[in-house]
Specification:
- The protein has 139 residues and is an alpha/beta fold.
- It has one domain (7-137): Rossmann fold (3-Layer(aba) Sandwich).
- It is built from 5 helices and 7 strands.
- Strand 6, helix 4 and strand 7 (104-107) form a beta-alpha-beta unit.
């Protein structure tokens, strides 16, 4: 039986707690690897050069902030599923992010590493089913 490939997650944040959550989720899950980008520009370079299955995107980056961060990312890489990280006092931005292409949003500091791993699995399965359904529509 072939071994499953590890899920490749790009973590786009300059927040140390986000990094620790990703590290713990990767360690607990065991089949997820992550790499970090600190700026949107760095993230766009990384996704152009390497394969990523999913992106965990902060909307508070040194070179981009707010919903515009998501819009710029999804315009450049529309096929990569995105989970958005929002600050607790900007929770309303999460709903806006969903309208602009994010598949899920998490409020920074209000999720565990286990919840992050579960959310990654959920989003990837949702994406897989959407691709499968769209293939049936055009077959």
């Amino acid at each position: 039986m072939a071994e499953k490939e590890a899920i490749q997650l790009l973590l786009v944040t300059n927040n140390h707690e986000d990094v620790r959550s990703a590290e713990r989720a990767a360690a607990k899950w065991g089949c997820m690897e992550y790499r970090q980008a600190v700026t949107l520009a760095e993230a766009l370079k990384r996704v152009a050069a390497d394969r990523f299955d999913i992106v965990l995107l902060s909307l508070s980056l040194p070179d981009s902030s707010g919903i515009e961060t998501l819009i710029r990312f999804t315009r450049a890489m529309p096929s990569i599923p995105v989970i958005v990280l929002t600050d607790p006092h900007h929770n309303h931005v999460g709903s806006e992010a969903l309208r602009h292409g994010a598949l899920l949003h998490l409020v920074r500091g209000e999720f565990s590493s286990h919840m992050l791993a579960q959310c990654v699995r959920y989003v990837l399965e949702r994406q897989r089913l959407a691709v499968q359904a769209s293939g049936r529509m055009y077959a």
